[in-house]
Amino acid sequence: MHPRHPRAAGLGLLACLLAAASPARAEPPAPPRLSLEDFLRRAEADNPVLRIARAGLADYSAKFDRAYYAWLPSLKVDAVLAPLPERRLLRECVFGTDPVSALPLIVPCPGQDIEDDEQITADTEIGILVKSSARLTFPIYTFGKVEAGQRAARAGLEIGEAGVDIARAGLAFEVKRAYYGAQLTHAALEVLRDGRSRIVDIKQTIERELEKESGRFTSNDLRELGLQRADIEGSLLETESLEAVAWEGLRLAAGFELGQAFELDSLELEPVHVEPRSREAYVELASVSRPELRALGAAVRARDSLVDLAWRDFLPDIALVGGFGFAKGTTAEDNPDPFADDNYNYLSWGVVLGAEVSLDFAVLIGKLGEAQAALSKQRAEREALLLKVRLEVVERFGAMERYRKELVIREDAMKDGKALLVSKTLNFGAGLDTTAEDVLNALVKFSKARLKYLQTIYEFNLAVARLSRTVGVDLAVPRPADE
To answer: What is the pTM (predicted TM-score) of this model?
Structure first.
């Protein structure tokens, strides 16, 4: 046994030290695995459709706040700051006696030129005029106008909340369609790839038999295989394209970045569980839970309140009104007479009880008629929607029940197709009286049966989602543990 070369031993020790000193490479994090509920939560957290609906709700909320605080006092303030040429008071003097009345004759004092005071010259002093006024109006009694406006605004808030629910329900349906679509395309690809693999096996068997010239097969059998394989390859390409669309829909709904990986918690497509209900029970559920109906019901209440408000507009508004005024001109002489009208120097205030009423009856009657017409239209729209919802429930309940029954038929057909394929394949491998065409036909029938079964599950789940969207409640619930 030869001793190790000293240089080689040193290099080995150095390599070990470097390996120990270098940090271990961190494993990339595993892609998140999301269930259908996870996708729904992520979609509702931040989605443009919901942001639009929430903005509408915020608008209704602002209108409600404005109507709710309509009873608060209103304050209006005006202020002026302007240059002011000097303004002098007209001084009056007693100049003799009136010969007719024998009373003192009061005339402007000598040395005052009224016209000259109105002219601005180089000697005119320019000052500042500060002037402000305020008016505080406190409603005392409005004959129910404030309450009617608050009722209408509160109903508007319900409309905004229903609008968010409408957007959420529409988004949930699209997420479910993409989720079930991803499961369907994955399962369909497995079926098609399994069929392609079986065709390859049959082809290899035929080619071996042709090389041995056993006489069991001809070149036409290979051509038949080629035609069948072409159909499968075309179906594979189409299904892969649909799968890409479904996964892109999930990525957009969940808010993942482009290229960011994620996985489904389960790729197995299974029928959802729905508690049994009668058709009339679904109709009743929709009448109280459908967000569109709730929105129109609130709209009717809002229109009714607006009609009430239009009636009350014929009555006056009674309020306390407080006023305040102030003016100061730095170049205007202050008049000592408290009863004089001085626009440049004054301080005033006061409180009065006032009433305001509109006598423009043509406008008031027109507004009342418009409000009543809008209320009639809103009621008719709600009644029409009730009829439409009932028809939708009947239609979608029927579709769900049809696919529920078809699932049993398709599952039995898939089992029969599998048994037929196994039998034909065993006979073909044993060289019994079974041709390649028989095996191909059995394979095609089994594959179609599997695909039809998967398609029926997908359609059933979508039918449940559509019915849920119609009644306004998610009907898919966890399956009981004993099933």
So the answer is: 0.77
